[in-house]
Amino acid sequence: MQLAVRGVVGLSSSASLIFNCQGAHHAEQPKHDAIALLKADHRKVEDLFEKFENARSDHKQALVQQICTELCIHTMIEEEIFYPACQGKIEHDDLLEESYVEHDGAKVLIAELLDSEPDAAFYDAKVSVLSEMIKHHVKEEEKRSEGLFAQAKEAGLDTEALGERLLDRKQALMEEFKNGAKLPPPETRSFTGHELLQGAPVDAGAAG
């Protein structure tokens, strides 16, 4: 198309504009791949954890709020849309079971952090452990041939259609939780609610 335009001597700017607009009209709209979207979420959270490691004390709570918001939205869209789409389609369903359990383990720490302050005992330790848990979870999902994402592709899932659904739900949740809106308590899917007894608080300084 560009060669044809250059070959037309004296082509007016208005004609050129019309030509370019027509070409743009026929261009394909960008597609949203589910796996690309979920991987982008992973990279964003990894970046936030890295920022936390180098943050001043007065910036930590805002970063933790952002980390928890990103993780809550991510786990919700995976559990509502992506994981059910994989159920019965991928080669190893035990990967899905482990993913739900890993999510629930992370949700316990998310709930702890949302109800805590940066000067609380074990605050930084909880963020650090949450980061390690997420790193492990991401590694398992993104393994080149054996991971959940690779198996979803191998199973022939329509990742573009799933991507559209994930994006729509994510945008709705981001709108719901914007401007510091209170996050709902994380909802576990695999934990059965065994009663836990909270013992006397440990002195974090003494524990170190």
Largest sheet: none
- Give the overall average pLDDT: 86
The number of E-state strands comes to 0
- CA-atom Rg in angstroms: 23 Å
Unreliable runs, pLDDT <50, ≥5 residues?
A: 1-27
Structural class: mainly alpha
Fraction of residues in β-strands = under 5%
The number of domains: 1
Q: Compute the number of helices.
A: 9
The rough form would be described as: globular
Percent of residues in helices comes to: 55-70%
Write the H/E string, N to C: HHHHHHHHH
Straight-line N-to-C gap: 68 Å
Characterise this structure.
It contains 9 helices and no strands. The protein has one domain. By secondary structure, the chain is an all-alpha fold. The radius of gyration is 23 Å and the shape is globular. 21% of the residues are buried.
